[in-house]
């Protein structure tokens, strides 16, 4: 488990405590690499975004190109955050999730699995792309 994932747990617990089946009409879970998979014609990306925990520019460039080609109107987006706070890969991941939100809004999203099971609280166990 990555250090980054470990630091996300408090926010994951927070949303888990608040989410209801009714709120799932407005709150959706996504995963950046699944969004990039969709942008790439439902084909896995050939290059990683990191190698040995360091940014890998060819992989980041691939994701930037897919983001531009996706049609999501975010070309003016710049990276003005301090590097220690937000990395280029973090910004690209946020853009990928915005891409999924745009697909959900325009009725073009995909749900995995297509017919998701529900947990004991009635929540759909799904990821959106």
Tell me the distance between the termini: 23 Å
The low-confidence runs, each spanning 5 or more residues with pLDDT under 50, are: none
Mean pLDDT: 90
Q: How many strand units?
A: 4
Q: What structural category do the secondary elements indicate?
A: mainly alpha
Give the strand order, joined by hyphens, for the main sheet: 1-2
What percentage of the residues does DSSP assign to strands (E)? Answer: 5-15%
The sequence of SSEs as H and E is HHEEHHEE
Total helices: the number is 4
Largest sheet: 2 strands, antiparallel
| Whole-angstrom Rg | 16 Å
Shape by Cα distribution? globular
The quaternary state of the protein chains shown equals single chain
The helicity comes to 40-55%
Please give the domain count: 1
List the helices and strands and how they pair.
Layout: H1 3-18, H2 32-39, E1 50-51, E2 54-55, H3 57-69, H4 88-105, E3 111-112, E4 127-128
Antiparallel strand pairs: 1-2, 3-4
Task: Explain what this protein looks like in three dimensions.
It is built from four helices and four strands, in the order ααββααββ. The two termini are 23 Å apart. The strands form two sheets. It has a two-stranded antiparallel sheet. With 129 residues, the chain is mainly alpha-helical. The chain has one domain (3-128). The model has no long low-confidence stretch (mean pLDDT 90). Helix 2 (32-39) crosses helix 4 (88-105) and helix 3 (57-69) runs parallel beside helix 4 (88-105).
